[in-house]
Amino acid sequence: MEWSEVIHNPFLQDLPFKIELNKFGKLLMSPASNSHGRFQGRIAGLLWQVLPKGEVITECSVQTSEGVKVADVAWASAEFIAEFAYTTPYPKAPEICVEIVSPSNSKLEISEKVDLYLAKGAKEVWVVYLDDRLEIFSHVGLVEQSIFLGNLKEKLFDSIL
């Protein structure tokens, strides 16, 4: 199955879970909780407020070597939008991709998504846990601070609590 088929299929609209495709074109579905949605909204709001010279995209689809992956939240610079507009899925990852970890996500699944987004051009991948933990990854590995927002943990969790 191709991503364009997924987004245009009326049976796959308004489902209570996130849909992705693996590298073989098979659908992967993950349930989302209200807590997950709350974090997603707060992170999107924080990015919108602190990085106004770009676009905040929720459910941002990115074509990777392992199929189409969907970041819970992404921030794309004005330059990224000028180059790719709102192509679906993006052939390259926006500068910031955020994954909010649900109980159904395995550590390996999240680690693979971090690697895939970075391989597709993301500058940072934020992994946010529902118990107020945060990991920030860049091309050098796990880092203490965001190059975009400095002390992100303080800003992020102060806005959520």
Structural description of this entry:
Helix 2 crosses helix 5 (152-160). The chain has a single domain, classed as tt1808, chain A (Alpha-Beta Complex). It is globular. It has 161 residues and is an alpha+beta fold. The strands form 2 sheets. A 6-stranded mixed beta sheet has the order 3-4-5-6-7-8. The protein has a two-stranded antiparallel ribbon with strand order 1-2. It is built from 5 helices and 8 strands; from the N terminus they run αββαββαβαβββα. It has helices at 3-8, 34-50, 78-84, 107-119, 152-160; strands spanning 17-21, 27-31, 54-64, 67-77, 96-101, 124-129, 133-138, 141-143. A hairpin with a 2-residue loop joins strand 7 and strand 8 (141-143).
Quantity of strands, as a count: 8
Helix/strand class: alpha+beta
Instruction: List the uncertain runs.
Output: none
Q: Which CATH class applies here? A: Alpha Beta
Q: What composes the largest sheet?
A: 6 strands, mixed
CATH architecture classification name: Alpha-Beta Complex
> Which geometry do the CA atoms define?
globular
Name the average pLDDT: 88
Which percent range fits the helix content? Answer: 25-40%
Can you say what the CATH homologous superfamily is?
tt1808, chain A
CATH topology: tt1808, chain A
Q: In DSSP terms, counting alpha (H) and pi (I) runs of 4 or more, how many helices?
A: 5
Ends distance: 40 Å
- Provide the gyration radius in Å: 15 Å
Strand order of the largest sheet: 3-4-5-6-7-8
Count of discrete structural domains: 1
